[in-house]
Amino acid sequence: MARIALVHKRTWFVRLAEWGSRRKFGKVLDPGQAALHNRRVLVSMMLLEGSAARWNKLDPTLKALAVMVSSAQIGCSWCIDFGYWEFHHQGVDPKKLRDVPGWRDSDTYTDLERAVMEYTEAMTATPPTVTDEQVERLRQDLTDEQLVELTAWVALENYRSRTYAALGLTSQGFKETCELRPA
Fold first, then answer.
1. For residues 97 and 72, is the Cβ–Cβ distance under 8 A?
2. Could you say which DSSP state residue 180 is in?
3. Which of 2, 31, 76, 127 shows the smallest number of beta carbons within 10 Å?
4. 85 and 160 assigned to the same domain
5. Can you give the residue range of the structural domain that contains 21?
């Protein structure tokens, strides 16, 4: 259960934020509800997310794996749930998304994808444990521009996952809407 109220007095700003969330995602997102307690934080989060949505140098699957590994390592069930939904709708292979928690034992991933996931884990550790060897491995396949973007995605997901986990936000059932249901 969330550690902060997700219900607000029905002001024009709350109604506008909820309308925008429903329009874009089909429901009101709990992180937005939590952030509504501080309008400046919410606006900053929205600006950051809007800017990050335009980053486009990194392969979408590599981005998805970095985001999912980071949220899994931190233990943010909201982020894992929403990430699965988001990347599923972007066309990322669902098996790759499902196998993230046990990625080391899965034969689903390429060498580059494994290098990205290893780098993500090292970057997400506290303190970070990134090595020169990990970066050099990534530089075999990624440009400097892509490496910087990968690093920024991992940092952004650390921010999200740590914030949402600390506030006690949990899955909103996004992943279930992606799964095929037997007739």
1. no
2. P
3. 127
4. yes
5. 12-54
Q: For residue 39, is it within any domain?
A: yes
150 vs 158: CA distance, rounded Å: 12
Same domain, 95 and 155: yes
**Total domains in the fold of the chain:** 2
Whether residue 155 is found in the same domain as residue 72: yes
Q: Say yes or no: 150 and 66 in one domain.
A: yes
111 and 46 in a single domain? The answer is no
Per-residue pLDDT of the chain (183 residues; tens, 9 = 90+): 788 989 888 899 889 999 999 999 989 999 999 999 999 999 999 999 999 999 999 999 999 999 999 999 999 999 999 999 999 999 999 999 999 999 999 999 999 999 999 999 999 999 999 999 999 999 999 999 999 999 999 999 999 999 999 999 999 887 776 664 444
Measured CA to CA, the distance from residue 23 to residue 136 in angstroms comes to 42
147-151, Cβ contacts within 8 angstroms, sequence gap of 24 or more:
149/55, 149/57, 149/58, 149/63, 150/58, 150/62, 150/63, 150/66, 150/116, 150/119, 151/123
One domain, residues 67 and 87: yes
Instruction: Judge if 71 and 112 occupy the same domain.
Output: yes
- pTM score, two decimals? 0.91
Phi-psi region of 44 (alpha: psi -120 to 50; beta: other; left: phi over 0): alpha
Quote the tokens at residue 90: 């972007």
Task: List the structure tokens of 105.
Answer: 């034992």
